[in-house]
UniProtKB/TrEMBL annotation:
Record-given protein name: Restriction system protein
Positions of region (Disordered): 1-53
GO MF entries: DNA binding; restriction endodeoxyribonuclease activity
GO BP annotations listed: DNA restriction-modification system
Biased composition (Basic and acidic residues): 1-11
Transmembrane segments: 87-106
Pfam family, one: Mrr_cat
Species the sequence originates in: Thermomonospora umbrina
Amino acid sequence: MPRSAPFDRRPRTARRTTRRSRSTRPTRSTRRTRPTRSGRTTRRGGGKAAPRRSVSTLRLGFVSLLVGVLIGTTALGRVVSEHPAATVGVLVLLLTATLLAGAAHLRRTARRRRALFEANCRLDQIDLMTGDEFERHVAELLRRDGFRAVRVVGRTADRGADVIARGPDGEPIAVQCKRWRGNVGAVEVRNFIGALNAAYAGHRGVFVASSAFTVQALEEAGLAGLRLVDRPDLGRWLTGEPLSLR
Protein backbone atom coordinates (compact mmCIF):
# COMPACT_ATOMS: atom_id res chain seq x y z
CA MET A 1 0.00 0.00 0.00
CA PRO A 2 1.51 3.29 -1.02
CA ARG A 3 2.64 5.61 1.68
CA SER A 4 0.76 8.90 1.77
CA ALA A 5 2.54 12.20 2.03
CA PRO A 6 2.55 13.81 5.45
CA PHE A 7 0.00 16.55 5.97
CA ASP A 8 1.47 20.00 6.35
CA ARG A 9 -0.21 21.59 9.30
CA ARG A 10 1.41 25.02 8.86
CA PRO A 11 -1.19 27.55 7.82
CA ARG A 12 -0.63 29.38 4.67
CA THR A 13 -0.21 33.07 5.18
CA ALA A 14 -1.73 35.15 2.50
CA ARG A 15 0.59 37.74 1.14
CA ARG A 16 -0.89 41.04 1.56
CA THR A 17 0.23 43.54 -0.96
CA THR A 18 0.06 47.08 0.16
CA ARG A 19 -0.03 49.66 -2.45
CA ARG A 20 1.87 52.71 -1.75
CA SER A 21 -0.31 55.64 -1.92
CA ARG A 22 1.08 58.03 -4.40
CA SER A 23 1.20 61.42 -2.93
CA THR A 24 0.35 64.08 -5.40
CA ARG A 25 2.96 66.78 -5.60
CA PRO A 26 1.64 70.19 -4.99
CA THR A 27 1.70 72.24 -8.12
CA ARG A 28 3.94 75.25 -8.22
CA SER A 29 1.90 78.14 -7.15
CA THR A 30 1.67 80.97 -9.55
CA ARG A 31 3.86 83.80 -8.44
CA ARG A 32 1.94 86.88 -7.80
CA THR A 33 3.03 90.16 -9.15
CA ARG A 34 3.09 93.35 -7.25
CA PRO A 35 3.11 96.85 -8.63
CA THR A 36 6.13 99.07 -8.10
CA ARG A 37 6.25 102.79 -7.62
CA SER A 38 7.08 103.34 -11.25
CA GLY A 39 3.88 101.57 -12.26
CA ARG A 40 5.59 98.35 -13.42
CA THR A 41 4.83 94.90 -12.07
CA THR A 42 7.62 92.66 -10.88
CA ARG A 43 7.60 89.07 -9.68
CA ARG A 44 7.65 88.49 -5.97
CA GLY A 45 11.14 87.49 -4.94
CA GLY A 46 12.69 88.79 -8.16
CA GLY A 47 14.78 91.90 -8.67
CA LYS A 48 13.23 95.12 -9.77
CA ALA A 49 13.76 96.21 -13.32
CA ALA A 50 15.81 99.36 -13.70
CA PRO A 51 13.47 102.26 -14.43
CA ARG A 52 14.07 104.18 -17.60
CA ARG A 53 15.39 107.66 -17.35
CA SER A 54 12.85 110.15 -18.39
CA VAL A 55 13.51 112.92 -20.87
CA SER A 56 13.27 115.50 -18.13
CA THR A 57 16.13 113.81 -16.22
CA LEU A 58 18.38 113.90 -19.28
CA ARG A 59 17.57 117.53 -19.89
CA LEU A 60 18.37 118.36 -16.28
CA GLY A 61 21.74 116.62 -16.56
CA PHE A 62 22.61 118.46 -19.76
CA VAL A 63 21.65 121.81 -18.26
CA SER A 64 23.74 121.07 -15.17
CA LEU A 65 26.75 120.20 -17.33
CA LEU A 66 26.34 123.38 -19.36
CA VAL A 67 26.09 125.49 -16.22
CA GLY A 68 29.22 123.84 -14.82
CA VAL A 69 31.17 124.59 -18.00
CA LEU A 70 30.06 128.22 -17.95
CA ILE A 71 31.00 128.62 -14.29
CA GLY A 72 34.42 127.02 -14.87
CA THR A 73 35.10 129.23 -17.89
CA THR A 74 34.11 132.34 -15.96
CA ALA A 75 36.32 131.39 -13.02
CA LEU A 76 39.26 130.69 -15.33
CA GLY A 77 38.82 134.03 -17.07
CA ARG A 78 38.72 135.80 -13.72
CA VAL A 79 41.93 134.07 -12.61
CA VAL A 80 43.65 135.02 -15.86
CA SER A 81 42.53 138.64 -15.57
CA GLU A 82 43.54 138.93 -11.92
CA HIS A 83 46.83 137.00 -12.18
CA PRO A 84 48.12 137.31 -15.75
CA ALA A 85 51.75 136.77 -14.81
CA ALA A 86 51.01 133.52 -12.96
CA THR A 87 48.88 132.28 -15.87
CA VAL A 88 51.64 132.98 -18.37
CA GLY A 89 54.12 131.21 -16.11
CA VAL A 90 51.94 128.10 -15.90
CA LEU A 91 51.48 128.04 -19.67
CA VAL A 92 55.23 128.40 -20.21
CA LEU A 93 55.90 125.52 -17.81
CA LEU A 94 53.38 123.29 -19.58
CA LEU A 95 54.84 124.13 -22.99
CA THR A 96 58.38 123.51 -21.76
CA ALA A 97 57.41 120.14 -20.27
CA THR A 98 55.74 119.12 -23.54
CA LEU A 99 58.79 120.09 -25.59
CA LEU A 100 61.15 118.25 -23.24
CA ALA A 101 59.02 115.10 -23.37
CA GLY A 102 58.93 115.24 -27.18
CA ALA A 103 62.69 115.75 -27.39
CA ALA A 104 63.31 112.82 -25.05
CA HIS A 105 61.08 110.60 -27.18
CA LEU A 106 62.94 111.62 -30.34
CA ARG A 107 66.29 110.91 -28.69
CA ARG A 108 65.16 107.45 -27.60
CA THR A 109 63.86 106.69 -31.08
CA ALA A 110 67.10 107.88 -32.71
CA ARG A 111 69.17 105.86 -30.22
CA ARG A 112 67.25 102.66 -30.96
CA ARG A 113 67.50 103.28 -34.70
CA ARG A 114 71.25 103.93 -34.46
CA ALA A 115 71.81 100.78 -32.41
CA LEU A 116 69.87 98.69 -34.92
CA PHE A 117 71.75 100.29 -37.79
CA GLU A 118 75.17 99.68 -36.24
CA ALA A 119 74.27 96.07 -35.51
CA ASN A 120 73.65 95.43 -39.24
CA CYS A 121 76.74 97.02 -40.80
CA ARG A 122 78.26 93.79 -42.07
CA LEU A 123 77.53 91.84 -45.21
CA ASP A 124 77.06 88.58 -43.34
CA GLN A 125 74.25 90.20 -41.35
CA ILE A 126 72.72 91.54 -44.55
CA ASP A 127 72.59 87.96 -45.84
CA LEU A 128 70.39 87.00 -42.87
CA MET A 129 67.80 89.70 -43.56
CA THR A 130 64.50 89.29 -45.29
CA GLY A 131 63.61 91.36 -48.32
CA ASP A 132 61.57 93.83 -46.27
CA GLU A 133 64.34 94.22 -43.69
CA PHE A 134 66.87 94.88 -46.45
CA GLU A 135 64.67 97.61 -47.93
CA ARG A 136 64.34 99.33 -44.55
CA HIS A 137 68.10 99.11 -44.01
CA VAL A 138 68.78 100.70 -47.39
CA ALA A 139 66.40 103.50 -46.40
CA GLU A 140 68.41 104.04 -43.19
CA LEU A 141 71.62 104.22 -45.21
CA LEU A 142 70.09 106.91 -47.39
CA ARG A 143 69.03 108.92 -44.34
CA ARG A 144 72.53 108.65 -42.94
CA ASP A 145 73.95 110.14 -46.14
CA GLY A 146 71.65 113.15 -46.01
CA PHE A 147 68.85 112.03 -48.32
CA ARG A 148 65.51 113.61 -47.53
CA ALA A 149 61.89 112.43 -47.75
CA VAL A 150 63.03 108.81 -47.62
CA ARG A 151 60.08 106.46 -47.80
CA VAL A 152 59.84 102.70 -48.10
CA VAL A 153 57.13 101.93 -50.63
CA GLY A 154 54.86 99.01 -49.83
CA ARG A 155 55.00 95.84 -51.85
CA THR A 156 51.35 96.10 -52.85
CA ALA A 157 51.73 99.41 -54.69
CA ASP A 158 55.46 99.86 -55.22
CA ARG A 159 55.10 100.16 -59.04
CA GLY A 160 58.58 98.73 -59.49
CA ALA A 161 60.51 100.65 -56.80
CA ASP A 162 61.13 99.77 -53.17
CA VAL A 163 62.44 103.07 -51.75
CA ILE A 164 61.96 106.63 -52.97
CA ALA A 165 63.84 109.67 -51.69
CA ARG A 166 65.39 113.01 -52.60
CA GLY A 167 69.13 113.48 -52.71
CA PRO A 168 71.01 116.19 -50.83
CA ASP A 169 70.79 118.33 -53.98
CA GLY A 170 67.03 117.71 -54.31
CA GLU A 171 67.23 115.16 -57.13
CA PRO A 172 64.50 112.50 -56.78
CA ILE A 173 65.64 108.89 -56.82
CA ALA A 174 63.89 105.54 -56.99
CA VAL A 175 65.67 102.52 -55.53
CA GLN A 176 65.18 98.85 -56.32
CA CYS A 177 66.49 96.44 -53.64
CA LYS A 178 67.36 92.79 -54.20
CA ARG A 179 68.68 90.69 -51.34
CA TRP A 180 69.67 87.75 -53.48
CA ARG A 181 72.29 85.06 -53.27
CA GLY A 182 72.48 84.59 -57.01
CA ASN A 183 73.49 87.19 -59.57
CA VAL A 184 70.97 89.74 -60.79
CA GLY A 185 70.36 89.37 -64.51
CA ALA A 186 69.42 91.66 -67.36
CA VAL A 187 65.71 90.84 -67.05
CA GLU A 188 65.44 92.44 -63.59
CA VAL A 189 67.37 95.48 -64.77
CA ARG A 190 65.12 95.92 -67.82
CA ASN A 191 62.01 95.59 -65.64
CA PHE A 192 63.28 98.31 -63.34
CA ILE A 193 64.09 100.58 -66.28
CA GLY A 194 60.55 100.07 -67.58
CA ALA A 195 59.12 100.96 -64.15
CA LEU A 196 61.19 104.15 -64.09
CA ASN A 197 59.90 105.22 -67.48
CA ALA A 198 56.29 104.37 -66.63
CA ALA A 199 55.80 105.45 -63.01
CA TYR A 200 58.91 107.36 -61.91
CA ALA A 201 59.68 109.69 -64.77
CA GLY A 202 62.36 112.20 -63.76
CA HIS A 203 63.75 109.97 -60.99
CA ARG A 204 67.30 108.73 -60.96
CA GLY A 205 67.32 104.95 -60.80
CA VAL A 206 69.48 103.12 -58.24
CA PHE A 207 69.61 99.32 -58.15
CA VAL A 208 71.02 97.91 -54.88
CA ALA A 209 71.82 94.20 -54.70
CA SER A 210 73.48 92.07 -52.04
CA SER A 211 75.06 89.97 -54.79
CA ALA A 212 76.64 90.70 -58.18
CA PHE A 213 75.24 91.68 -61.58
CA THR A 214 75.70 89.72 -64.76
CA VAL A 215 77.55 91.18 -67.74
CA GLN A 216 74.30 91.65 -69.64
CA ALA A 217 72.80 93.51 -66.65
CA LEU A 218 75.80 95.83 -66.54
CA GLU A 219 75.38 96.59 -70.24
CA GLU A 220 71.65 97.32 -69.86
CA ALA A 221 72.30 99.62 -66.90
CA GLY A 222 75.07 101.47 -68.74
CA LEU A 223 72.80 102.22 -71.70
CA ALA A 224 70.00 103.53 -69.46
CA GLY A 225 72.22 105.50 -67.05
CA LEU A 226 71.21 103.32 -64.11
CA ARG A 227 73.34 103.36 -60.94
CA LEU A 228 74.17 99.82 -59.84
CA VAL A 229 75.31 99.00 -56.30
CA ASP A 230 76.71 95.47 -56.15
CA ARG A 231 78.06 93.53 -53.16
CA PRO A 232 81.48 95.25 -52.93
CA ASP A 233 79.84 98.69 -53.25
CA LEU A 234 77.30 97.71 -50.60
CA GLY A 235 80.08 96.63 -48.24
CA ARG A 236 81.80 100.02 -48.56
CA TRP A 237 78.47 101.79 -48.14
CA LEU A 238 77.83 99.88 -44.93
CA THR A 239 81.17 100.88 -43.43
CA GLY A 240 80.44 104.60 -43.83
CA GLU A 241 81.39 105.54 -47.38
CA PRO A 242 78.61 107.77 -48.75
CA LEU A 243 76.64 106.65 -51.77
CA SER A 244 77.60 108.36 -55.01
CA LEU A 245 74.99 108.63 -57.74
CA ARG A 246 77.55 109.35 -60.46
